[in-house]
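Anyone able to model this chain together with PRP?
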Amino acid sequence: MLNIALPKGRLGEKVYGMFAAAGYECPSVLENSRKLIFENEEKGVRYFWVKPSDVAIYVERGAADIGVAGKDILLEYEPDVYELLDMKTGICRMAVAAPKDFHDNKRKTLKVATKFTNIAADYYAKQGRDIDIIHLNGSIEIAPILHLSDVIVDIVETGKTLKENDLEVVETVAPISARLIANKSSYKFNVKAVEEMVKSLRKIVEEKA
Ligand code: PRP
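re: yes, here you go
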């Protein structure tokens, strides 16, 4: 039985659809209940819904063999897992954004508000830029409007949130999409079953492209 951690929410439902199309269906997963664990013994899979940012924790610690996590989480926390496949869904980008009238003075320390402090720190360290990081947990877009920060580092998907708050992308930091990840020792132990799953999922990803 492979334990699979899915990110709760719209992305997770899409991703489950890909697993089902790849031959790993478990119809009860989509039942509208408060249940969190679902099993299809015949197909050898047990799915469970977890908070998207927790998927990598379950997989790294072996509570899940397999999971689907955003590249943003993988870049930020660098969990010790194998990244097996780009699912090419949940596509967005990590970007620096600022108010439309923002002019960067490179001699001044830049105030950066973000949930992704490691990604932001790495990005500016590579440029040799001095920054002051302000860690926030959500509604990051408000920070520059209220002069809490000069810029933000955040996820941009459609750009609607930025637009509605008079912000714009200044630079792209990294492209983001959902990735299939595996626990390292479980991978070695279940290599045949996991590789078969990757192969079937890859086919579905390619068909969708
Ligand atoms: C993300 C991100 C932006 C928004 C971008 O938030 O932090 O606020 O999506 O999407 P858009 O470009 O399509 O407008 P999310 O809804 O994932 O949750 P969060 O507020 O917890 O970050």
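The longest strand covers residues 167-176.
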